[in-house]
Amino acid sequence: MATSKNKEDYIHTDSGIGGQYKTWFLNYASYVILERAVPAIEDGLKPVQRRILHAMKEMDDGRFNKVANIIGQSMQYHPHGDMSIGDALVNLGQKDLLIETQGNWGDVRTGDDAAAPRYIEARLSKFALEVAFNNKTTDWALSYDGRKNEPVTLPMKFPLLLAQGAEGIAVGLATKILPHNFCELIDASIKYLKGKKFELLPDFLTGGTMDASNYNDGKRGGKIRVRAIIEELDKKTLVIRSVPYGVTTTQLMESIVKATDQGKIKIKKVNDHTAAEVEIIIELAPGISPDITIDALYAFTDCEVSISPNACVIVKDRPQFLGVPELLRVSADNTKDLLKRELEIKLNELQEKWHYTSLEKIFFEEKIYKELEKKHETWEKVLTAIDKAFEPFKKLLRRPITREDIVKLTEKPVRRIYKLDIDELNEQIKGLEGDIKQVKYDLEHLTEFAVAYYENLLKKYGKGRERKTEIKQFDTIQAKSVAIANIKLYVNYADGFIGTGLKKDEFVAEVSDLDDIIAFTKSGIMKVVRVSDKIFIGKDIIHVAVFQKNDERTTYNLVYVDGKTGVTYAKRFNVTGITRDKEYDLTKGAEKSRVHYFSANPNGEAEVVKIVLSPNCTAKKKELEFYFEELEIKGRSSIGNQVTKYPIKSVKFKEAGKSTLDAKKLWFDNKFGRLNTEEKGEYLGKFDAEDRILVIYNDGNYEITDQELTQRFDPEKILLIEKFKADKIVTAVYLDNEKLQYNIKRFKIETTTLKSKFFFIKEGKDNRLEMVTTDDEPLLIVRTGRGQLVRSAKFKVKNMVEVMGWKAVGAKLTEYSKSVEMEWEKKIDDENAQPELF
Q: What is the H or E stretch that residue 313 is in?
């Protein structure tokens, strides 16, 4: 019996199991990276995709083939199961570029699967046949079983990798290349070849809108945000018109239901009516703002998703991370090189054809064929005689005459040669010489030839492939500001607890689980905490509210006694920023300090309070009034102003005061369509609490709205937005498309309903508002005609149109013409420098 070795001997020797483990995992990882997950830079395809396309090319006869048959054909080249091939084929077909499909191929928007392979059919598209195949420029390798040849890479003359995108997970790395627009890729390729700058951003078949500010050229570390298109049908109904890339309608609805169950949004019902177009109907709960709900859908559901690209490709059998511009440059250079190789092959073929046609012409024209009629001893002597007969003409040819050339000539049937045959050969030679000249010219001007090639692709296949995803910049939605307040908050004032679980105690307000809560105690302690089931603030709570960070308008008025000196102080302060869960002492910090009076004022109001001193104190005047308006608003850590050194019996509210703050300044951000106080966009003015905003849209509607910052507007549809003044007169010019004329009207806004649109121009198809202003005496300049025939007229509108009701049609201004241009002018200049005044 042989002596057994220790287990460790096998593990630690390179020939044993340990040595095999050292290489097996590396081999497996390399295989997954190179042969399954990551596309090649040359043609933008993974091996399974390349093998499918090659199999389809072998089968191609112009007709559709059953997908089951294509899968079977592909299995000759791909050493994996039919499911992986089928999934890859369906994925290629759904991209609608290389493969034409027939039957139910599923839907990437809804997530519906394709029908079984035996029911659906496919064939290569004309585009694929033009850009992806050329046996003469293809490098070949043996298939996995050695029975057939397969392409190493397809000779792809198009940036397919960027057009289709790619996604794959390998061992230790992943790739995620986003799809880009067909037409934009061709335009970028042309710009690169011409030495111009170009920019590429993703485009998705599912449409939607996209913020690619941080795209980072598709490299690692970049990110894009994609949103569904959500429209407001009415104040009670929203409709989703698209889904973000990578999200199905089913996933989207599930995320909406989940957000509803969690209380993030409040909706009544959601229904999926998707057919040819995406249509998800959302019915809102009563009293819920559609604008806030739209923001909440983006904040809490898959209506907005972030996508992080990671462009990894195989370059010379190694994975590399490249940016989108580099991928396009490589593709354009590769296309240019392939076109060069095709031209060189074509030139060689033309030259060979010219050589043989010239031989044939000489062979018959100079009657060299008669050598075949002579009696030569051997066939070789016949060939030698023919070669000798060509001797005077060899200098006319571009290469030596070979034995194969002569043999080929002798195989032609010898017949009586007419002059017509010689003329035909001369025409062929002339045509070949023209073709050779053109190919040589194209080789000398290869860049121009490549540009023309791309332009031809765009002309033939670009129609219907325009951008589907709208590029926008998104505003940042604060989840806290749009979360639905659906949790009841309670407080135990005496014991000092607040929370959602104190249902036996006093109700404070409905809050969301994202809110922060600010609380004040009788001892002068302030604390901000998250919403929770139960949390201790401090005994004798005097005020609890939802905390708004950076709130510079909410002002707290406070009267407190310093426990050490007995002196009473008053102060006014804001709380704009804090550290959550930290206790802040609003007094001087002495142990027995107590708050006599506290109020929270949302707009900086400064009330009057009545102070009653202790009857035992030595002060002559036992009652006094204190006016908070006399105090400046300072930081929360300020001591405040001294009120009295005598002990106080009580401090009570006496009289409401006005705000001591300036009116709120508002701006309209015309990039994101938002009202704001951060000085972004167009300044609208100073607003008191009761002031309103007038919005006039290009579809002929106006709307009066409040100052709520969560409102959403489409800036592309707004012609005018300003502070509303009821006495102002609106002057509007609109197109009456039925009569092909422009009408003008002046009216006062008589409606008072907030956040409701009122249509104030004549109803009719394609009627639209052209110009609007609220200036007191507007001057309208109208220009008609073009070039030297331009005629300008200035209208003093106040003198020509009376003020009428907001529903009035108005008066005719001028006939409609595409050359009509209008603008407002506010000042009347010297008449000699102005157009004719009406």
A: strand 312-315
